[in-house]
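Workshop exercise sheet. Pairs work together: one partner reads the sequence aloud, the other fills in the structure field after running the prediction. Swap roles for the next sheet.
Pair: D.N. / O.F.
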Amino acid sequence: MKGTNGADIEGLTLPVDEDFDPNIQLDNLGPKTVPASSIDVKLWAQAICSQLVLYLGHWPLWTGCQLSSTVCEQHDSIPSLGTELGPPVLTAPHIQVMRLSDSTLASFIELPALDLPQGGTTPGLVTSDRQVRVLLRDITGKSCWDASALYYDPSVTSAEVIEPLPLSKVVETPRDNTLSSLPPPLPADLLPDYRNSPPDKHQLDHVLAYIGHTSPEVTWGRRLDEAGPSPLPPGLEDELVCALVAHRNAERHYLQNRHSEEDVESVDITSMSGSSENVFAASSQLVSQLGTLAPARRAHAHLLKRTDRLLRELRNLDAQRCRETHKVAVIYVGKGQETRNEILSNRCGSAAYEAFLAALAWEVELESHVGFAGGLRGGGGGGTSAPYLATLTLEALFHVATRMPADTPDAILNKTRHLGNDEVHVVWSEHWRPYKRDTLPTQFCDVLIVLYPLPGGLLRCTVSRKPDVGVFGPLWEECIVRVSCCAALVRGAAFAGGRAVRATMPLYQHACSERARDLDALVATHTHATPFEHFVTRIRAPLHTHQQQTDQSSGRLANALLDHGASGWSNSEPHTVSPRPVKRLGPFKRPLQPTSAPHTAPPSVPAPAPRRNR
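Structure field:
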């Protein structure tokens, strides 16, 4: 455990045995700087935390099950930004793509409020006319959240008639309930409640004074309501007090002289804020409320460079699988069937076999299925439906032989290809002879699970594997299980067998590992480190207006310069391409000097020799 030679440890007595070697270097249990498995452990811990945050208590959604990974930045936008993640997203003023942490990317999209099904919002509350869509990309996949601000409007939701409060039109004296004229404190022996407390003042000091009076044992010789040390420096505290006193004096001066002054003309608020409406106001408010602008988050939250390369890598990231996938072949063998054509020609199975398939996974339509398809698509010879299962960590599709068409020899050949390419085969055999492994010849089929029905609602299971595949469970060779629980056990054994087969592959990586590597590369390449002022400005307005105007003006200037330079070229030929030198000039060569002859000189006049540098 100390990582040293056993003979050098004090108090350690070694046995005298030639077959015993106390110095095993391969089993060094001493502390290491970076353990070999620390990266995987941290990755899986991060994946579990992300899954708990995203899915715990949020699935299934009250609006129904939806696949949020198909939602992108361009969807539901007005005006339309196309059908895929393309260049219009980079110039959209209502979309901001940023990095929330080292492994989480966020896109904030402000959209018009969508019509919500099943009743809308909570009774008594109204929503804003705009909503914010948040797309999160992390190692567990992509999730979509729609957020909208809630407001309470008593004039709309309340059934009672709201009477306005009576306000005096003339104020004879200014208000005195400001800084220096607070209400007198309550007696220490009086419990503050709603009857003796002003409605606009908190009673924390009064409550602490009451506790100190009734329970002096908790005071430890000090007042509970006394003010503690100020966190501000003495000079800054004095400046703050002076500012508050000046504000109070200005307020009193306004209340005394407001009738003598002329009415100030109303100013249009929109003209002060700008002629155009801020289309990212709700999103910037949400980003601020999430704490992204806090000092503790400043080191993690950054903007991303809005480039075409970023969009390409985001499309590649969305196309990756974020969960473990499995393809499992399920074959039915009837009584007396021994050849491949007889077995693959079955259109259906027995009642017990169909009940086993119904308990194995969900039946999905391949034509409308958007999850993992395992190479099967509707109309492609894979049938119309197939059992499918999905959890937070894996997706599995079962290639059922009785669900695939077998009308022609080509259909049987296509079925053989789908089944033969699977790593795990599950065979339901009602034949009196054992199922032979070479019945379906394939170089795959690393794991073979065969189920034999027995009387009394039991099943006999045989599990065979290739020599290089490790031992797995929960089924083992020649075990007896009940029919009622066989579907869950076979499903678990098939997934465990698939993992055991992939463990033998030297370059195999889990989907989370690949996604984490691509996320790290994307964050390192496209992070746009900016000062805090520029960061806040871009959060308020994703597109910099001044930068756009500068780019446009610089583009017009460049075009004007090109046009001006082109006008000095020969007028006899069209100048569609800029003239380029035939030979590249060396570092110590000068270009040919123009001749002093007039423009009417013939072109045969030789040019002077170039001057060489010494």
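Discussion prompt: The radius of gyration is 38 Å. What would you look at next?
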